[in-house]
Amino acid sequence: MEKVKQAPTIRFAIASIVTLVLFIVFCLSILKIPTVIALLFSWLILAPFALKLGYTAKEIEESVYDMIKVGAGLFALLLAIGCMVAIWVSAGTIPAIIYWGITLINPQFFLLIAFIICVLISIPTGTNWGTISTIGIAMMGIGLGMGINPGLVAAAVATGSIVGDIISPVSDTPLLTTTLSRVDIIKHLKHTARTVIPSVILTSIIYIILGFMNIGGGNVDIQATEGISAELTKHFNLGLWTLVPLVVAITLLILKQSAVSSILISCVFGLFVAIFYQGYSISELGSFLQNGFTIETGHEVLDPILNAGGISSMMSLVAMIVSALGMGGILKGTGILNRLVESLSHVIKSKVGLTNVTFIGTSVFSSLVAVNYFSLVMNSTLMGPLYKKLKYRPENATRAITTFTNPISMMVPWTSNGVFIAATLGVPILTMLPFMFFNFILIVLEILSGYTGIGLAKYTDEEYKNMLEEEKEELTPTKELTRIELTPTEELNTI
Predict the structure, then answer these.
(1) How far apart are CA 186 and CA 149, in angstroms?
(2) Is 214 helix (H, G, I), strand (E, B) or coil?
(3) What confidence tens digit (pLDDT) does each residue in 223-248 have?
(4) Which terminus has fewer CB within 10 Å in the chain: N or C?
(5) Whole-model pTM?
(6) Residue pLDDT, tens place only, 403-461
(7) What is the DSSP letter of 134?
(8) Where in the chain are the domains?
(9) What would the DSSP string read from start to end of 227-269?
């Protein structure tokens, strides 16, 4: 006979989350062990809580595996990016962009240019990962060649790339949230622009000020620059043919092709450039694809940039994501996260409460579950009706969910977003975190909008009445929610 599962009480859910957080903090700050190890062994920390609720060891493993399956597409993308970086270096794509960048771009305007270029590319492509792994890598090379603080450069690239992920009509983030919340995509994007556009403008102003104040470096050493240029021209042909892989990748992304196929196709073009223009053999390129591009220029700036890529470079990243997904699978499968959200919903009394609960919910889900899709799905499902309850249109909910979830997931080191950005740009999240001005500004503006009501769209009394009537008509007998009768024993486990 199957053992009856108990629903976690709010005290039980909080105890499990607090225990998990304390364990991870202890591992990282006291034991100084790698994050991936802490996340992997967090499964064992959560297992006793799951067993207490009536789940078997087999069911706990199944919840882990079910969540890991979500990352299958992500793993394929990571492997493709590892190949792309190796090929783009061997084809001379990244070296050429670095060469032209340090020659043509004024260091005072570099941070602004890097940010705006990533914004402009991310909007038509609708992907921050695609932007970061293409033009973002090139911007990092230019910035390092100019002697600018790597944390500043990485932050400008990462935050610029996330703009399209939030506001692009072809991005999966707004498409997912608007579909779940039943909001028109154009209405959502116009509403979201009220906080995104001011955030872009304010961030641009900050980067201009930093450039002119020379904060973070940027005093180009002429001899150092000439040394980098000389080494690049010595080891690579830097003609326009080197840009073919980049143009192919960006074109395919704009045409709404998948990131994996776009990157792999660009790799094929890059292989031809590397063979016929740079002179590498097929066996050498095979080794680069597996282990990463290798070269010894003797230049302390160039070698760390050029010796990169390969499938092997992504293995630690895949391990990190698997560990994080497994942790999230146990929390989701046991209902612990659901209990937390349900409990938070009881405190909502006003627009301030809506903002607080949305921010807390997105922060919790984005931090505890590796992929931000889970946060988007859960919050879109739960918050939309709560906004309507207080006569606020659901596009307020979709805007808040996307403008909270995406920046937060980028700033948490162990999420798939944070890990990907750190691995791709070669800069730890905590190093670039203080300079993620766009993320902080966007979050603050969204909170201010929620607290003051400025920029929030409300139903008129007549519109609200019509909305309730429409929802009542849609709730046919076949769609009515099933009421679950609880036994006295089960009632003890509810709030």
Answers:
(1) 38
(2) coil
(3) 666 788 888 999 999 999 999 998 99
(4) N
(5) 0.69
(6) 999 999 889 888 878 888 888 888 999 899 999 999 999 999 999 998 998 888 888 77
(7) I
(8) 72-315
(9) HHHHHHHHH---SGGGGHHHHHHHHHHHTT--HHHHHHHHHHH
